[in-house]
Amino acid sequence: MTASTPGIRLRHALEVLRERSPLVQCLTNTVVQQITADVLLAVRAAPAMVDHPLEAPVFAGAADGVLINVGTVSSDQATAMPAAARAAAEAGTPWVLDPVAIGSLPVRTPLAHELLALGPTAIRGNASEIAALAGDGAGGRGVDATDSVDDVLRAARDLARRSGTVVAVSGERDAILSADRTTVLTSGDALLPRVIGTGCSLGAVCAALLGAIRGSDLTAHDAVLAAHALLGAAGTVAAREARGVGSFAVAWLDALDTLTPEDVVTLVQIQEDPAGVTA
Amino acid sequence: MTASTPGIRLRHALEVLRERSPLVQCLTNTVVQQITADVLLAVRAAPAMVDHPLEAPVFAGAADGVLINVGTVSSDQATAMPAAARAAAEAGTPWVLDPVAIGSLPVRTPLAHELLALGPTAIRGNASEIAALAGDGAGGRGVDATDSVDDVLRAARDLARRSGTVVAVSGERDAILSADRTTVLTSGDALLPRVIGTGCSLGAVCAALLGAIRGSDLTAHDAVLAAHALLGAAGTVAAREARGVGSFAVAWLDALDTLTPEDVVTLVQIQEDPAGVTA
Amino acid sequence: MTASTPGIRLRHALEVLRERSPLVQCLTNTVVQQITADVLLAVRAAPAMVDHPLEAPVFAGAADGVLINVGTVSSDQATAMPAAARAAAEAGTPWVLDPVAIGSLPVRTPLAHELLALGPTAIRGNASEIAALAGDGAGGRGVDATDSVDDVLRAARDLARRSGTVVAVSGERDAILSADRTTVLTSGDALLPRVIGTGCSLGAVCAALLGAIRGSDLTAHDAVLAAHALLGAAGTVAAREARGVGSFAVAWLDALDTLTPEDVVTLVQIQEDPAGVTA
């Protein structure tokens, strides 16, 4: 492994995303469905928000990747989500769990644990959500984290090892953890969390990249890292010309559409297995 | 009929849309509700997304036009949609069916056929959706067409004749077909399908125009054609200054707001009963 | 009370909003969830759209303010809304009722009256909705008012006195009424009602400000007035550079993000207890 390896693998992951246009099924919250679909289209994936209990498992067998986000879970979705997760697993389709605002809320919290037991390919959340899923915290303040990324790294790595999944903790810095690899990513801008759906869209782009890399020599860890890098890099570019959160959101979609894989590599900082985290 | 007739009727249809501000009820998918409402407001219609099973049929009697789009059909919507279609028919309110992603999905596919039997004023979809509704295809890839517009023209015309409705097939070129008339429209831009909801909004604007033209000498075919021309022309204008999909979507709404009927006529190409299609 | 008092109290309310970042739970319609969340983030509040019947009352106890908007009421929301209202009342959490399109629709109309009986801290609607809630009108045209603000001032003040709540009637001018105070606000721009969700977001920002002012010497009336002033002032600024409804919406979010409390004070006109209204 040379010093340039992370950059080469990142560029490769972003290239296959553009080439393969993966079909991504999203069972996600109604607040962010539009921006999630627009983000997927911007990065050259094809979105489909099929979440009826009788349709979701049928579609999961045909999709290239599936996102399950419990942000506004309804009774129907609570039935559809485990069914879609099982169908994805049977078909070998990668799927991502986003445990939005779990902790003390009585429907989504046990549902997220039920979904965790079904073996997601990756889990993405903020620090408080990951801590709650790892059994190590009571959740955050609404949809906001009250823990920092660093606070929960140990719990996140334990969760990754125990469940054999990739765990991504989003925050000022992002941490991506799997059984034997920890990556810390510095990217983005303070405006990103001030636009609704940027985090939820990240879960969808993780599913897109996991679908895109199938058959390549890239790993699920590479795919999840690439998703975080792409959305963060677009945030850095968008912030340069934004005059507030409205024009930032527009410029972010433009950047997702137009940034090349090479651009993304130059816009982010990646630290593999940093000291103190891997200890 | 002179050579300029299509342009004159198009301009007339767009003028009555601006004058009458039709009230359009949308039973549509949750992904595109916001952009659909914004598009309706931009073109001077009034949106109302009333889709509760007990409220939808009451409202359908008061609306000027109704859109039924099965894109994220829920159990409640599956009850509300036929009830709204029946109430619209009883009140003489025009209504549009958008059979999103039908083909193999087990709830929306029979629902779309049930709705078809209730006599929509117009049907709008991509080539694969129209083929599936005509009984001549298995549907597309998620919400994307895997057939071309030309592939399905015969099936679409048969569907139009059999059901006595206007059938619009959207794609790189759009085809609008009724029992004795076929129109091919060239307009728009490649960025249009890369913004979520541009197609679904088209169904809503069809309903708006169908509501607006009542009492005029314009036909349902004219109304559906005008809707496609308006949204396509705005896409052409928006693409001129877009720096990606985000700024394109913003410029598209601006163009929908500000383009005059005359502008639209100059921005599109209309071919009536082209050879090879009417054979 | 000096002539400058309204301006001083307005600035104070907007300052505490920025300092305290209130957590606002929205049980609202699916059409406007995204823009409502983006507006709350722009004004420094934290949105959470928790509306499952089993989760909504749990969350209402932790939120700083709650919005209940019946715009696309579902069966689940019709159960969740009274439960959330009761939980908010028990916890002393202020909550806002937005009776969207009530009048003749058979689910939302009795639901809104049930919610009114639970004692909202404030009610926000257009003239026809307020008239219908006051028992003095049959509702508007879909989601649009068919009455003017002036038409319904007497009914609105009676409603405010009877229910002990603050009643805000939105329109070309806004009227904010409580038992012993009437304020007329002139602000905004004609483009504001042509972007979907600007009115619904106003209800959410009322909830944010009601949450923010707790513990200060400001009143609920001050908070509701400040919400209307902030969103209207941003509309005035946005209209200066808008090229249509699309760029207006973007510039409006930018202005919500960047306007200072002082800016807002200079951009609106406030009339306290104007003659003819208080008679």
TrEMBL record, chains A, B, C:
GO molecular function: hydroxyethylthiazole kinase activity
Keyword entries, A-Z: ATP-binding, Kinase, Magnesium, Metal-binding, Nucleotide-binding, Thiamine biosynthesis, Transferase
Cofactor: Mg(2+)
Domain of life: Bacteria
EC number(s) per entry: 2.7.1.50
Catalysed reactions, as listed in the record: 5-(2-hydroxyethyl)-4-methylthiazole + ATP = 4-methyl-5-(2-phosphooxyethyl)-thiazole + ADP + H(+)
UniProt family annotation: Belongs to the Thz kinase family.
Name used for this protein in its record: Hydroxyethylthiazole kinase
